[in-house]
Design goal:
By secondary structure, the protein is of the alpha/beta class. It has ten helices and 20 strands. The mean pLDDT is about 95.
Length: about 425
């Protein structure tokens, strides 16, 4: 097996085991612990050492890992890679049980982020997330992560015989058409707390000890490498767990230089980042300042460090679609396995400027990685990402990059085996220099 395919399979395993942002964060944490990183409590005093390896977690769904550099913080600054742990899905509402004519049981859900809704139909789905439990201290409930793993439900399509225009494009009402069917109703059926009873049984806890939950749907089909030459990665949540995986491995595998290397994995990018664990929060800024304080630096030293710092905002990009070539810009048309794409926008929806593009481009060229450019069509409004949001909190040089993928926000996305290995190599080199 080639090293690129081996690395892609490791990515697939990481994603398959990370059905929610909580699980992704936990898996990153476990990898950091294996590599000797020490957990820092946000509520405790930090005592950091040069070349020390540390991490801190926010809300169990965002994580920042860092290695203190060999040099002086005020002279060598921070090298940062930012990504996000969340992906579009369906979140289960409170009191979710809905009976249909005393025959079927379905669950009430709401859309999280911007999924391509029709890709969720007719697929075996399961439930994963976080459950909070009663303790002796009402201000400190405990929590457990849950992944029920097995296929529990499905969102059934309406037969074409009852929906003759389905192939002409039909608007989907998420309060009606996307509610998942979980069971038929038997004689001894108890509607109240049906879901919580399943959760309690799965976790091995008492039903009355469950205080609340954050539960999401996900497709149980595993990821795979596809293509005649095994060049494609077909998997859920490639946006943006692909960049979390590449950034994590880049951090762990790189030789430490003078700068302090940081990996920031935010939550809630798909819903605007405006949470305490999102890129629009002070989370990263606070961690960087606390690093500075713990290294006995003053406020001026901290600001000097920021001026010497650089952020790579890593979120996936759009590849040229083989069946819809007219949707791409006229002259900037990145393709899968053509290399990472620098993302540009005149309206600053991406933070890239000529300086930051030159920096990342130079890094890639120095190790033989091909680069592409992504720009939206001038008559189409594109998306944004954590780069400009992070810039509202930290005024440091930054670039937005991503690997070109197809089907972004589908229940399964398609990326490139060789792109993923290339972006990992670029991150590893970025942290090294």
């Amino acid at each position: 097996m080639k090293k690129e395919q081996e690395f892609a399979r490791d990515l697939i395993n990481f994603i398959d085991n990370s059905p929610t942002s909580f699980h992704a964060t936990k898996n990153v944490e476990e990898k950091l612990i294996q590599e000797g990183f020490k957990k820092l409590d946000l509520g405790e005093k930090w005592n950091l050492e040069k070349e020390g390896k540390y991490y801190t977690v926010k809300n169990s769904s965002a994580i920042i890992g860092f290695i203190i550099g060999k040099g002086k913080l005020e002279e060598d600054g921070f090298k940062l890679i930012g990504a996000h742990t969340d992906a579009p899905s369906f979140k289960i509402k409170a009191n979710p049980e809905i009976t249909v004519e005393d025959e079927y049981l379905k669950l009430n859900t709401e859309v999280y982020g911007g999924p391509i809704l029709n890709t969720w139909f007719d697929r075996p789905l399961s439930i994963a997330g976080r459950v909070n439990l009663k303790t002796d201290n009402p201000l400190r409930p405990s929590e457990k992560l849950i992944d029920m793993e097995k296929p529990l439900m499905i969102i059934p399509n309406l037969a074409i015989h009852m929906n003759r225009k389905v192939n002409e494009g039909v608007k989907i009402n998420p309060q009606i058409e996307t509610l998942p069917l979980i069971s038929t109703i038997e004689e001894e059926f108890e509607k109240n707390n049906y879901l919580l009873a399943l959760v309690a049984k799965d976790l091995g806890v008492e039903l009355e000890d469950i205080l609340d939950f954050e539960l999401f749907l996900y497709g149980v089909e595993k990821g795979s490498i596809v293509g005649l030459n095994e060049e494609f990665i077909s998997v859920a949540r490639l946006d943006d767990l692909g960049m979390v995986h590449a950034g994590l491995n880049g951090l762990l595998d790189s030789e430490l230089g003078n700068s302090t290397n940081v990996l920031a994995c935010f939550d809630n990018e798909e819903v605007g980042s405006g949470t305490k664990q999102g890129a629009a929060s002070p989370m990263l800024r606070t961690v960087l300042e606390r690093i500075s304080i713990s290294m006995n630096k003053n406020k001026e030293d901290y600001y000097r460090a920021l001026s010497k710092s650089f952020l790579i905002s890593a979120d996936q990009a759009h590849a040229l679609h083989p069946n819809n070539t007219d949707k791409q810009d006229l002259t900037n048309r990145p393709v899968i396995n053509g290399g990472p794409a620098i993302k540009l926008a005149a309206n600053q929806a991406y933070t890239t400027d000529s300086f930051s593009a030159a920096v990342y481009g130079g890094i890639c060229r120095s190790i033989g990685i091909d680069l592409q450019k992504f720009v939206n069509r001038s008559d189409k409004k594109g998306g944004s990402t954590i780069g400009p949001i992070s810039s509202s909190q930290l005024d440091i040089a930054s670039i937005d990059i991503g690997n070109p993928i197809l089907g972004m926000h589908s229940i399964r996305e398609l990326g490139g085996v060789f792109d993923h290995y290339s972006v990992y190599r670029s991150f590893k080199e970025f942290y090294r220099i």
